[in-house]
Amino acid sequence: MPATVYFATNRVISGPATDYRNYSSKIVSPTNPAAITYGTAFVDDANLTADTVGAITSIRDISQGRFSDAAIGDLSNPGRNLLIFIHGFDNSFENAITRAAFNQQWFYQSRLPAANTSIVAFSWPSLGKLLSLPVPWDDYFHDQTVAGQSGSHLMSFFANLEPCMRSARAGGHRTFLLAHSMGNLALQAGVESWFLHGNGPAPLFDEAFLAAADERYDSFSFPVPGRLSDLNQLAQRISIYYSTADAVLHLSMALNLGAKRLGQEGPHDRYDTKLFPAARYRMVDCSSFDDFDRDFASSHQYYRRSPRARADIAGAM
Q: pLDDT tens string for the chain (317 positions)?
């Protein structure tokens, strides 16, 4: 079934924006929100069993600095819930869009009405090179740098989406955020930027799903508005998926000089119910999820490779 993916990206585009191959791994000016490209991509054959999930068949409705009027109309009155997706390390623009389509298609096929969503992807300029052993350190640190530099762009993206989400919510629909891997580092930069620029609390998301987060495990413990400490001012509930079997995050911890990652054992002080009340935070330990072929790379992709993990996300919706 073809999928429609609305998107925004802070990648520099080196040719016609209708060709996905022109979306580079360079970042646009952090001080110019108008440089962010918005558009609509169509993805065919989002195969739920394959690691390569679908192909971009066309890109339309290109606009700079904001969604096109057509996209705004669709997202403001979607007829179903909205899912915003932020990809992780090692994703090209094509990877980001096709994996967003994969998520949308699987949630639709779960047969749970609340998991039938329209999908919006934010693609930051990861290099998108093959993740393998030995991991290319320079590529990892490139991605880590541009993810952190994407904070103001994510803030602008959220601000552009906010009226659409408000309208969708007024129509009885819910809004979700799904961030994977290093996408959580980009997310923390966006949340921090949101409040540092004078924006106040806003009900952007009914639930934020943080999967295999390649972000500091003490991110929620920073003085507000540091890192993810104020995410609870933008999301009604936060679900944190972690796994001690995530081989990629073990290596990431080593690359980050021993700094434990949020996606390994959950957040620092996760058992403190004052800091993480059960009504606002879900902690989901995926360490024992073995219902997929698990190797070095796939151990980090359980949020989409494990039927059990996908079912938990869909059920939480």
A: 679 999 999 999 999 999 999 999 999 998 888 899 999 999 997 666 656 667 999 999 999 999 999 999 999 999 999 999 999 998 999 999 999 999 999 899 899 999 999 999 999 999 976 555 566 678 899 999 999 999 999 999 999 999 999 999 999 999 999 999 999 999 999 999 999 999 999 999 999 999 999 999 999 999 999 999 999 999 999 999 999 999 999 999 999 999 999 999 999 999 999 999 999 999 999 999 999 999 998 999 999 999 999 999 999 99
Specify the pairing of strand 235-242 against strand 11-13. Answer: unpaired
Give the closest residue to 99 by CA, choosing from 61, 147, 150, 56. 56
Q: Counting beta carbons within 10 angstroms of the beta carbon of residue 45, is it exposed (0 to 12), middle (13 to 18) or buried (19 or more)?
A: middle
Integer Cα distance of 26 and 234 in angstroms: 29
Strands 37-44 and 81-86: unpaired
In angstroms, how far is the first alpha carbon of the chain from the final one?
22
- Can you tell me the distance from the alpha carbon of 162 to that of 45, in angstroms, rounded to the nearest whole number? 30
Residue 203 has which token pair?
Answer: 């009900």
Q: How far is CA 277 from CA 21, 269, 273, 288, in A?
A: 45, 12, 5, 24
Q: Phi and psi dihedrals of 93, rounded to 5?
A: -60, -45
Q: Is-contact 308 243, C-beta < 8 A?
A: no
- Asked if residue 168 lies in contact with residue 175, where contact means CB atoms within 8 angstroms, the answer is yes
Cis before 225 (ω within 30)? yes
The second-level CATH assignment, the architecture, of 3-316 is 3-Layer(aba) Sandwich (3.40)
Q: How far apart are CA 112 and CA 142, in angstroms?
A: 39
CA–CA gap between residue 27 and residue 154 (Å, rounded): 13
236 φ/ψ angles, rounded to the nearest 5 degrees: -70, -35
Between strands 117-123 and 3-9, the pairing is: parallel
Residue 276 has φ and ψ, to the nearest 5°, of -130, 70
